[in-house]
Amino acid sequence: MVKARKLSVSSVKGWVLTLTAVAAAAILASCAQSPTGRSQLQLLSSSQLDQMGDKSYQEMKAQEQVSKDAKVNAYVQCIADALIAELPAPYAEQPWEVNVFVSDQVNAFALPGGHIGVYQGLLKVAETPAQLAAVMGHEIGHVIAGHSNERLSTNMVAGLGLEVAGAYIAGNTDNNTAGLIMAGLGLGTQVGVILPFSRTHESEADALGLDYMAAAGFDPAAAADLWRNMAAQGGKAPLEFLSTHPSPQSRINAIEKRLPEVTPIYQRRQQQGDLPNCRRP
Fold this sequence. Notes:
Elements: H1 9-29, E1 31-33, E2 39-41, H2 46-63, H3 70-84, E3 97-101, E4 108-111, E5 115-119, H4 120-125, H5 129-144, H6 147-170, H7 175-216, H8 222-232, H9 248-272
Parallel strand pairs: 3-5
Antiparallel strand pairs: 1-2, 4-5
Helix pairs in contact: 1-6, 3-5, 5-7, 5-8, 6-7, 7-9, 8-9
């Protein structure tokens, strides 16, 4: 029987260096840059992401009831068309499938491969076309910024790192201690790496969404109004530090700080005329 030994400081340094080496190798192997200039880790190809998006969207349509309300569909499609026309290549040229799902969820999403879903419950909170454009522009921003790829890649590296650390710790300490250390490692990874990336993604998608909606002819100030509506829905939100999303007030503050940059884009579009005429049912 092998006697378990106490995990020393030098041992801890050993598996930390191993984790660092794994992460560094992955980063060096696949560095990318988001539309805002932020460095990203992307291990998957765009075709792989598109296939995942296509599969997930088909599953979603099979599980959820798709609305057949012509007026609601026309309203959401009108906003989607206006936003898509202002996207960078190749996203503006590719076909996008847009569906409204019959559900009280206050939510929307966009997936790689050209897919947008809006839940009817969101239409009760997004009270104007511009407010709905803020949500849809935000979700499209996730796709264009490659957030799905980055999130999957980060999870892959974190999972591999934890496996390496787990194998090392299990061989160098007793089972109880190993379990406690791994539990702490998992929490540390979640709070220190995965969740902050998610908050970064949300903030970045907010910024991109403002650009798209302003260029499409929707008042970007409506994005702040949307989050005021969200906050008014009530419910105790988790602490921002332990949440994948910034708090509504944090988002409002960030949006209002950026309005001086994007409002001139909207004003130029107003002067050009031909603003989207999306009528809320």
